[in-house]
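Standup notes
- DV: blocked on the single-chain target, sequence here:
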Amino acid sequence: MVSPDAATAAEAPPAPATAPHAPYVRVKQHLKEGLAAGRWPPGALMPSEAELVAEFGVSRMTVNRALRELQAEGLVTRTQGVGTFAAPLHRVSSTLTIRDLHEEIESRGHRHHAVVHLLRAERAPAPLAQQLGVGTGARVFHSLIVHHENGVPLQCEDRYVNPACCPGYLDADFTATTPTQLLFETTALWRAQYAIEAAAPTAEEARLLGIGAREPCLVVTRRTFTRDAPITIARLVHPGTRYLLQGEFQP
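- DV (later): unblocked, structure below
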């Protein structure tokens, strides 16, 4: 994107002082400002979700998103059933934010749509059963979805879900929501593991993404957990020429 020159910038009218923000941004900014001002010292218990819902007149989902993003940025810690706490000032961590692809695409001003190629219950072979914490041959949910950005395939998402963590998974309309969003809303996400590699797609992935069989891809394998059990394992395949993995670090 080309920046305006100095003359154009000087002639431009000033931005409104109170530009509208999404509700979760208002909640997040309020908490960030309070943390920066020392309103909640490291380790202090912060306002509960219920208190923030009442204060801002927003939904619990909106508050939860604000808190999730603060947690991903290392500014707060959250303990299920206890509350949200200001993170220690010395805390430094390497994190990969679990971001919903639909939101990522729309943040660029582009259009997202998904094509569901498979959504069913299957019997888990031993290696998969071990990863999901279920018995060999137990029933698990399997989805295969291709996400598009402005009509171009961007990600092939091959996901298995532990039914005990999300019983309604097979009833979801994944053309209207994403598995990531559904699992954020319906499970108690505690931690995640991930691996990133450059690899060739499988024959099926290449076909679904409309790329050559040897085209390099960015492959992210991600597994998430509640306190007590694995929730899901997903293989996310992105054509290397169409996707850039970005992040930000600030001590």
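- Follow-up: The domain at 21-86 is CATH 1.10.10.10 (Arc Repressor Mutant, subunit A).
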